[in-house]
Structures are given as structure tokens and as C-alpha cells.
Write a structure and sequence with these properties.
alpha+beta; Helix Hairpins; Heat Shock Protein 90; 3 domains
């Protein structure tokens, strides 16, 4: 059974309507750092000041009590004369001008100066011998009072004013407050300086993002130091470089596509204008042969445009990052591509040798790449020519190699580094149909799957195009 006390799960946060920022979040980061530094230092100063004040206060009062008690004991052990003015008190106590001495008898009689704190039951208990010593603070006279027995049914009462000690503590509190305030102000200034210096890279990043948004300028930001903000700036520069490279690729693609589309569109427009002009009543009639040739040209140009647009769409799709998580049998991929290539080039013989190979990848993209290699080989091979297709593992690298070799004229050494570039066509290929995008699609598919491509000369004398891919020669059996 279900738990009747189960608490329902909270609703997910609304990412489209985030909560409004708090009052603290509306304060700039620099001011927050400044206030945080000031508050931390203020807390530390307050703790240190309170601790220092309490320690000094207790120490001063303890020293005062010890000194007062010690003098009272010395006076009680010395010779005393029972007179009203205590004229024969020991000479040592005349030096202690801040101390007042009185003698309290057990019957409550007080001997000594008139200016004295009022006696209490504590001093009378010492005089009667009930307690050995008493120590108290008299708030009326603001003095500290100690009483010790004299041994004659009397107690010596000694008092001293607390004003010097309190004056010292007052001066100490003023010093602590002033120094603490100065420390807080200094901390606030240091926090402001640190915040400005530390947030300067963030300000540069903010200015750079604003510049990119307004002007599209993708220049990198200068990096100084090796801290977290410097690494953040370097990462942002990497993002700008990737964005600039993507824009440059798009610009080149658009420019090259426009250049390649211009020729078939111009030829198609010319043929269509001639056909429209010939259809007018007053125009000279075209022969049936000329008309058929023009229709054939138009059909060929439309097919060329369709192929070019399809290659552009495929190339744009390959530029988009895609997740590769499907187990692909490369032999099946090559065989499907071979079936399509044989239908397109029925006069070409394909000599096929395939070894088992399994990899993780996109089966559709891989089939398109293999088909482009086969179509390219069939295009350059003469009627009745042979195209060799080998799929074999490379023991030295742990990869598999797909080699497609034709029986055509081959690729010159100067053209080999560029045959996989977009829209690149050698001088011999410009008279043949094609868009110049097929092999670039092969390169992109191979690199997206962790492989590579290579153009070389085949032992048969034609061109050899090789695509290497990762994977395993054995297929994992599922239980």
C-alpha cells in the first residue's frame, strides 16, 4: 500500500518565467564584494575589540584587587595606634595616597578619616571574626573596599577609588572604536580595489559580448594572468574563435554555392529564353532536333541543380553536431551503397572484398559517404572499367580502411591535397557533371566518426580514395 503521509513532489521550476531578482541581486557585484569585505572585517574587529576590552578590564580589576588586598594585609600586620585619626599608621601607607584606611571594631566603632565609604555587614563580620576577608565594590563612593582582621576584635578596612581604572578603560574603548572604524574603512577600500581588479576581466567579457552583439566583431580579448578569470577569458576567446570559424565556413559555403549555381542557372535561363522566343508566332521555327537538344540540356541542367541542392542540404546536415550511438555493421552499409552504385553505373564492374567490421555511428551518413566514393570512381572509370572496393582492418592502427580504386586517369599529385575540399574541381573535372561536394561530404562523415580520408594513386593506375574508421572486427552478441 502507498504511504498516506507521503509529501507530493514540488513542481518543477518555471524556466520561462524566473522569479524576480532579490534586493541583494540588484546590487552590483563590485558593491557586494565591497560590503562583504567590510562586514567580515567589521565582525572580526568587533570580536577582537570585545575580547581585548574584556581581557584588559578583568586584568586591571584583578591587579587592583590584588594590590588592595596585599596592602591591607601589610597594614593589618603592622603597628596600629587606636586613635581617632590613626596618626601612627606605618609610613608605607602614607605613600599610597590613593588608598584610604579605617579600623572597624567589633562593636561598630570606626577609627580613621571622615571621608570613607560606608561600612557594611561584610566588614563588621570580619571585625567580629566570622569571616577572614571581604571584598566588595561600593557604588555610592565608586570605590573598591577590602576588609582584613587585625587580631584585636577589629578589622582594617582599606578602600581605593575606581576612577583611574575606569578612565583607563574608557580610553581603551575609544582607541578600540577608532582603530576598528579605521580598519573597517580600510577593508572597504581594499575590497573595492580588489573587486575592481578582480572584476576587470569580467568587465572586458561584458564589453566584448556587447561588442559582438552590436557589431559582430569577433576579435579575441587580451588574456593576462593564469587565474580562474583568465581561464574564463581564454574559454570565451575559444568560443569567439569557433564562432568566427563557423561564420567563415558559412560565408565560404554561400559564396561557393552562389558561384556553382550561377553557371547552370545562366545556361538554364538561356535555353528557356530561346524556347520561349521560338514559341512566339513571328519567331523562326526551331527544328525538331534543335528543340530536342535544348530540352535535353534543360533536363540535364535541372538534374545538375537538383544534385547540387541535395549536396548542399546534405553538407549542411553534416555540419550539425549529431549524437552517434547506433551500432553499425559496415559491411551492410557498403553492400547497400554498392547496390545503388550498380544501378547508377551499370557498365562499371565492381570488384568487392569485404571483411567484417562493426562500429558506433550513423548508418545513413556512412552509406551516403560510401556511395559518394563509389559514384566518383564510376564517373572516372571508362565504360567496362573496373572499380576495386576493399574493406580490411589495419593491424598497426586498430582501424579499418575502405579503399575505392578506379581505372580512370587518376589524380595529379598537385590536386590530391584539395580533392576533399568543398567545391574543388580539377581542370579535368570541370567538363564532367558534379557539384564538387561529394568528396567533402565523405571527409566530414569520416571526421565526425573519428576517422580520416586520403587520396593517392592506385596500383591499377587510377585514383585511390581511402577512408579509415574506428570500430571492432567482431560484433558483440547480445544474450
Amino acid at each position: 500500500m502507498g504511504n498516506p503521509m507521503a509529501v507530493p513532489a514540488p513542481p518543477p521550476p518555471d524556466l520561462d518565467n524566473p522569479p524576480p531578482p532579490s534586493r541583494l541581486q540588484r546590487v552590483s557585484l563590485r558593491n557586494r564584494v565591497t560590503w562583504l569585505a567590510a562586514m567580515c572585517v567589521a565582525g572580526a574587529v568587533a570580536l577582537v575589540s570585545v575580547g581585548a576590552f574584556v581581557t584588559v578590564r578583568d586584568s586591571l580589576y584583578q591587579q587592583l584587587d590584588d594590590s588592595l588586598t596585599e596592602r591591607a594585609v601589610e597594614a593589618a600586620e603592622g603597628p596600629l595606634v587606636r586613635t581617632a585619626d590613626l596618626q601612627q599608621v606605618p609610613v608605607a601607607f602614607f605613600v599610597a595616597t590613593n588608598f584610604r584606611i579605617n579600623v572597624l571594631s567589633a562593636d561598630g566603632t570606626v577609627f580613621g578619616p571622615e571621608q570613607r565609604p560606608p561600612m557594611s555587614v561584610l566588614e563588621l563580620s570580619v571585625a567580629k571574626g566570622e569571616v577572614q576577608r571581604s571584598l566588595r565594590t561600593d557604588k555610592a563612593s565608586n570605590s573598591r573596599v577590602v576588609a582584613v582582621p587585625t587580631g584585636r576584635n577589629a578589622a582594617l578596612v582599606m578602600s581605593t577609588s575606581l576612577q583611574p581604572t575606569q578612565r583607563t578603560l574608557a580610553q581603551l574603548s575609544v582607541v578600540l572604536v577608532v582603530m576598528g572604524g579605521a580598519g573597517i574603512l580600510l577593508a572597504a577600500a581594499a575590497g573595492t580595489a580588489v573587486a575592481r581588479a578582480g572584476l576587470r576581466p569580467v568587465q572586458r567579457l561584458t564589453a566584448a559580448t556587447g561588442r559582438v552583439a552590436l557589431t559582430g566583431d569577433l576579435r579575441p580579448i587580451p588574456v593576462s594572468g593564469d587565474d580562474e578569470l583568465a581561464r574564463l577569458t581564454a574559454s570565451f576567446n575559444g568560443m569567439l574563435s569557433a564562432l568566427a570559424e563557423s561564420q567563415e565556413r558559412q560565408r565560404r559555403l554561400v559564396a561557393d554555392a552562389g558561384h556553382e549555381l550561377r553557371t547552370p542557372l545562366t545556361s538554364l535561363r538561356t535555353n528557356l529564353e530561346l524556347l520561349l522566343a521560338a514559341a512566339r508566332p513571328d519567331a523562326p521555327a526551331l527544328s525538331e532536333q534543335d528543340r530536342q537538344e535544348m530540352f535535353s540540356d534543360v533536363q540535364a541542367q535541372v538534374e545538375e541543380l537538383s544534385a547540387l541542392v541535395g549536396d548542399l542540404v546534405e553538407l549542411a546536415r553534416e555540419d550539425t553536431p549529431q549524437a552517434v550511438h547506433e551500432s553499425v555493421d559496415l559491411v551492410d552499409v557498403v553492400e547497400r551503397a554498392l547496390g545503388r552504385a550498380r544501378r547508377r553505373a551499370p557498365r562499371t564492374e565492381f570488384d568487392v572484398r569485404l571483411n567484417p567490421w562493426v562500429m558506433m555511428g550513423d548508418a545513413t551518413a556512412l552509406e551516403r559517404a560510401v556511395l559518394n566514393l563509389l559514384d566518383n570512381a564510376a564517373k572516372w572509370s571508362p565504360d567496362g572499367g573496373h572499380v576495386r572496393v576493399d574493406l580490411y582492418p589495419e593491424e598497426s592502427t586498430g582501424l579499418t580502411a575502405l579503399e575505392v580504386a578506379d581505372s580512370g586517369p587518376g589524380i595529379t599529385e598537385a590536386d590530391r591535397p584539395y580533392v576533399f575540399e568543398r567545391f574543388y574541381r580539377s581542370s579535368d573535372a570541370r567538363t564532367l557533371p558534379g557539384s564538387g561536394l561529394g568528396l567533402s561530404i565523405v571527409k566530414q562523415v569520416a571526421e565526425r566518426h573519428g576517422g580520416s580520408v586520403l587520396a593517392a594513386e592506385a596500383p591499377e593506375g587510377g585514383a585511390l580514395l581511402r577512408m579509415t574508421l574506428p570500430g571492432s572486427p567482431q560484433q558483440n552478441e547480445q544474450q
